Amino acid sequence: MAEKIRKEFILDAAACDEISELVFDRCISNGTERKEALRYRLSAEECLLYWLRNGCGGKRVVVSMGRFMLTPYITIEAEGSSLDPYSEDDADFGSFCDSILVSMRLSPEYSYNNGYNCIKFRLRRKSPGQIVTLCLVILSAALAGMLGHVILPGHVREVLLTSVVDPVYNTFFNILGCIAGPMIFLSVSWGVYGIGDVSTLGRIGRKMMLRFVGTVMIAAACSTVFFPALGPGLSSGSEAGGQFASVSELILGIFPSTIVEPFATGNTLQIIFLAIVIGIALLYLGKQTSSVARAIEQVNLLVQFLMEIISRMVPYVIFLVIINMIWSGSIDVLISSWKLVLVLVVACVAAAAVFLILTSVSRKVSVPVLIRKSTPTFLVALTTASSAAAFSSNVTACEKRFGIDESLIRFGIPLGMVMHKPISAIYNLLILFFFAAKYDIGCSIGWICVAVFISAVIAIATPPIPGGGAVAYSILFAQMGIPSDALAVALALDLITDFLITAFEMLVLPLSLISVSAGLGMINEDVLRSEDA
C-alpha cells in the first residue's frame, strides 16, 4: 500500500458514494480480492447512510488510510452523537458474533471517540497462498540444510545450532507459552458470556452451542479407534484402579488453589475452568457487569491481534526447525509423519461421510446432492486453508442451496467457525497418539480419556485466527506430557494439515446447521432437497 492518506468530507449522499468508491479503490490497490473489496465498499456505504439518516448529515467525515504494524487499514470517522451502525439488532449474542467477524477481518470495528463515530477496516492482502508459502519454506530450508551439511564443518554447524537456531525458536515457543493462557481464558469467558441474551435468539443460541459442543466431544471420542494405527499400545498396568485415580485426579485438579496459579503453572484445565466460571457469573449478573464484559471483549481482541503478529514469524521458525532437523539427524521424525497425515485423511473422509449420511437420512435428501452443494465451499477452504476466505461461500451455500433461515445463518456460521471443530478435535487426538508413540509415553485408559477431553476442549477454545494452531499444540503437549521438541515438528506439519482440517471443517459445519435449523423449523425443505446446486 502507498503513503498515508487523510481526506475530509461533509456528510451527504454524494459524499457517501465518493467515500465508498474511495474505500473500494484503496482495497484493490492494496491487493485485496475484488469480491472482498466489494464487501468492504458496501459495509462503508451502509454505515455512512446510517449516520446520514440519524442526524449526522452536514457534519464532518474524516477518511484515513495507512498501515499499522504492517497491517493496512481504513478508518471512517463521522462527527456527531454516538451511533453504532451495528447496534440495531440490540442482542448480546449478535454482538458476540460481530466480534468474531471483526477478529477475522470480516467486519469493520466500531468505536466512539471525542465526538466522532469511527469504523475501522483492517484489510487482508491477496497473498501467494499457503501452498506457495509451504513449498518455499520447505524447499529453501531443505536446500540450506543440505548445503550447510556439505559445506560447513561439524563444529561450525554445532555452534550455529546452539548459539543461533536453538535460542531463536526456543524464544518463539516461550512467547507462545506466555500468550497461550490469557488467549484461551479470554476466548472461553467471552464465548460463554456471548450466550446471554434473554430473547428467542438466546434460546436458539444455547441450543446451537450445545449441539456444537456435543458434536466435538463425540468426534474426539470416536477417533480413539485410530489409536492402534498411531499409538504406542496401551501401557501395561496392573491397575484399573490406578487409571480411575488418574481420571479422578484430573477432575479434582481442575479447581485451583489461587486465582493466579493456573496462569503461573500453565494448567490449561484450570484456566478453562476459571474462564467458564467467570463467563457464567458475567452472564448471570447481566448489565451489572457490562463494563467488565466489554473489557474482556476488548482485551480478547488485543491478545488475538498480538497473536496474529507473532504468527507472522512461524514460516521463519519452521525454516530454522527443518535446518535443525537436517543438521542434528532427526529429520526422520518429520519424514515418518506421513503416517499421521494418511490417518488424518482417512479420519476426515470418515467423519464427513458420517455427517453426510446422518443428514441424508434425517432430512431425506440424497448424499450426492449434499456433496454437490457443499463442494464450492470445500474447494475454497481446501485451496486457501482459511475459514475466513470460505465465509462468504458458506453463507451463500447455507441460504441459497440448503434453505437455512437467514437469521440463523447470521450468527450460526460465525459461532460455528469458532465452536464447531470436530475435525480439529480429531486431529488433536491423532497428533497426541503419534507423538506418544515417538517419545515412548505410556498410554493408559486414563491417559486416553484425558487426551479425548483435552483435545475436544482445546479445539473449541482456540479461536480461528493466525497462530491459533500453534497455541493449541503448545497447550496440548504441555498438558499431556509430550516433550517440547514435538512442537517444532507439529508446526511444520501444520502447514500441510491445515488445508485438510479447514476444508473438512467448512464441509461439515452447514450439515450441523441443517439439523439445528430443521429442529427449530427454520429451514426450507424444498430448497434443501432441490437438486439445483
Describe the protein in words.
- With 533 residues, the chain is an alpha+beta fold.
- The protein folds into two domains: 5-122, Histidine kinase-like ATPase, C-terminal domain (Heat Shock Protein 90, 2-Layer Sandwich), CATH 3.30.565.10; 131-529, Proton glutamate symport protein (Orthogonal Bundle), CATH 1.10.3860.
- It is built from 22 helices and five strands.
- Strands 1-2-3-5-4 form a five-stranded antiparallel beta sheet, covered by helices on one side.
- Helix 6 packs antiparallel against helix 19 (445-461) and helix 14 (338-363) runs parallel beside helix 21.
- The radius of gyration is 24 Å and the shape is globular.
- The two termini are 38 Å apart.
- The model is unreliable at 237-244 (pLDDT under 50).
